[in-house]
Write a structure and sequence with these properties.
With about 325 residues, the protein is of the alpha+beta class. It has nine helices and 13 strands. The chain has a single domain, classed as Glutaredoxin. The chain is about 50% helix and about 15% strand. Helix 3 crosses helix 9 and helix 4 packs across helix 7. The chain is elongated and about 135 Å long.
Length: about 325
C-alpha cells in the first residue's frame, strides 16, 4: 500500500495531500499574517540594532574616562615638574651671561635665562682687581670690602639690592665695618635693553658726585619697572639733579667723555678672573652673571665669591668671617 504524505498548516491545522496545496492555502488564507510576522521580526532586528548602537557610545564614554584621567594625570605631573624647575631656577637668583662659560667663553653672543646660584668654596685672586676710581659706599678704611658686579636692569640685582644689600648697608656700612664698591656688568644679551644706557649715565653721575650715585642707584632699583629705553637717561639725570648734580655736566659727560669705556672696562675685568664657581647651569667663570660679589678683608690676596641674589644671612656669614679673621 502506498502511503501519502500529509501537509498540515501551522496557522490553522488544516491538512493537505500535497505541499503545493499547502502553499496555495497559506498564500490565500494566511498571507496578511505572514507579512505581519515578517514585519514584526524586522522590527525586532532593527530595535536590537538600535539598542546596540545606543550601547556603543555608553561603552565609549566608559573607555574615555580612564583616558581622560590619564591625560589629566600627565598634565598635573607636567605642571609639578615645571613648578619644581621654576622654583629651582628662581632660587637665590642670577642673570647669567653665558651658562657654563669657562675660561673666557662668555661673550654677549651666548644669552641665557635666569637661574639660581649659591656661594662657592673657591676663592678669587684679587691681583687684577682695580678699586680706585670706582663708586664707593662707606668708610675708605673699613676693614672689609665688598665688590659688587651688577646690572641696573637685572631683576635679581633688584632683589639683592632691596633685600640683602639694604641690610648690609644698615648693619655694616653705616657702622664703618664694610665698604661697598660698585662695578658695572650690563647684560644686553639677556634683553636688558636699557642696562648699558643706565650704566653709562650713572658713570657720568658718579663723576660729578659719589654720594649722588648711590642715592640714584637706590631709586633705579626701586623704580625698575617704570624705566624704559625711552626715559632711562632723562629719568636718571632728573634724579641726579634732585641730588644737586648739574644736568648740563652729566649731558656733557655723555657727549664728550666716553663713559662707556669705563663700563666696558668693569665688565672686562669681571670676565678676567680665573675662578670657576658653581651655577645651576653648571660650572661658570667668575664673573659671568649678575649679581656677583667678592668679599675680602684688609691685606687679603684672595676674596670669597658670592654668586646670585644671596640672602642676607649668606652675605653676613662671609662678612663676619672676614671681620673675625
Amino acid at each position: 500500500m502506498i502511503m501519502s504524505d500529509n501537509y498540515t498548516c501551522d496557522n490553522c491545522g488544516e491538512e493537505f495531500d500535497s505541499e503545493r496545496g499547502l502553499h496555495i492555502h497559506i498564500g490565500q488564507v494566511h498571507g496578511d499574517d505572514e507579512k505581519q510576522e515578517s514585519n514584526n521580526e524586522s522590527e525586532e532586528v532593527e530595535e536590537a540594532s538600535e539598542e546596540s548602537n545606543r550601547d556603543f557610545p555608553i561603552d565609549e564614554r566608559r573607555l574615555q574616562i580612564p583616558v581622560e584621567l590619564a591625560l589629566f594625570s600627565v598634565f598635573v605631573l607636567g605642571v609639578a615638574v615645571g613648578l619644581s624647575t621654576g622654583l629651582l631656577a628662581a632660587g637665590s637668583g642670577l642673570s647669567l651671561d653665558a651658562p657654563g662659560a669657562i675660561n673666557g667663553d662668555n661673550g654677549d653672543s651666548s644669552p641665557s635665562g635666569d637661574g639660581s646660584s649659591s656661594g662657592s668654596s673657591e676663592t678669587v685672586d684679587l691681583s687684577n682687581l682695580e678699586t680706585k676710581g670706582e663708586p664707593v659706599l662707606g668708610e675708605e678704611d673699613a676693614p672689609v670690602t665688598m665688590v659688587v658686579y651688577e646690572d641696573f636692569q637685572c631683576p635679581f640685582c633688584q632683589r639683592f639690592e632691596t633685600g640683602a644689600m639694604a641690610k648690609v648697608n644698615a648693619e655694616y656700612v653705616e657702622s664703618g665695618q664694610v665698604k661697598v664698591i660698585w662695578k658695572d656688568f650690563p647684560l644686553p644679551s639677556l634683553g636688558h635693553d636699557w642696562a648699558e644706557p643706565s650704566a653709562e649715565t650713572m658713570e657720568c653721575v658718579y663723576r660729578q658726585d659719589n654720594d649722588a650715585f648711590w642715592s640714584v642707584k637706590e631709586l633705579i632699583f626701586q623704580n625698575q619697572d617704570s624705566i624704559s629705553t625711552d626715559n632711562v637717561q632723562d629719568q636718571i639725570i632728573s634724579w641726579a639733579s634732585d641730588e644737586g648734580v648739574s644736568e648740563d655736566a652729566v649731558r656733557t659727560c655723555l657727549e664728550n667723555e666716553s663713559p662707556m669705556d669705563e663700563v666696558n672696562g668693569d665688565k672686562a675685568e669681571g670676565r678676567n678672573f680665573d675662578t670657576v664657581v658653581q651655577t645651576p647651569q653648571g660650572p661658570s667663570q667668575f664673573v659671568s652673571g649678575t649679581p656677583s660679589s667678592v668679599i675680602y678683608g684688609e691685606g687679603d690676596e684672595t676674596g670669597e665669591p658670592l654668586v646670585g641674589a644671596q640672602p642676607f644671612s649668606a652675605v653676613q656669614s662671609v662678612i663676619e668671617s672676614k671681620l673675625n679673621s
